[in-house]
Design a protein that fits this description.
108 residues; mainly beta; 5-stranded antiparallel sheet; 0% helix; 45% strand; WD repeat
């Protein structure tokens, strides 16, 4: 499988998956087949070996759940600058400011 990068968004040529970077070191992945999306965060806490990324949700209203992040607390100086998807494996690379994060699909 090959990928094509257009701006800051990465598409698989089959166009079944899309990944894009955002502010606060968040990146989003979309699956066009299932119409599901997930927001994840590239951070030092998630870069520990065998750490599982936890989905993140940004809340725009006043009330928020414990695991949600208020839009007012986003750091717009931290941003994903580049994303890349391995052409044959479930591995992604995410570049944020001066850090490079590499994530691999969960190993059974």
């Amino acid at each position: 499988m090959q990928m094509k990068q257009m701006g800051k968004t990465v598409f698989f040529l089959s166009y079944s998956a899309i990944m894009t970077g955002s502010y606060n070191n968040f990146f989003r992945m979309f699956d066009r087949n299932t119409r599901r999306d997930i927001t994840l965060e590239a951070s030092r806490e998630s870069s520990k070996p065998r750490a599982i990324l936890k989905p993140r949700k940004v809340c725009t209203g006043g009330k928020r759940k414990k695991d949600e992040i208020s839009v007012d607390s986003l750091d717009f100086n931290k941003k994903i600058l580049h994303t890349a998807w391995h052409p044959a494996e479930n591995i992604i690379a995410v570049a944020a400011t001066n850090n490079l994060y590499i994530f691999q699909d969960k190993i059974n």
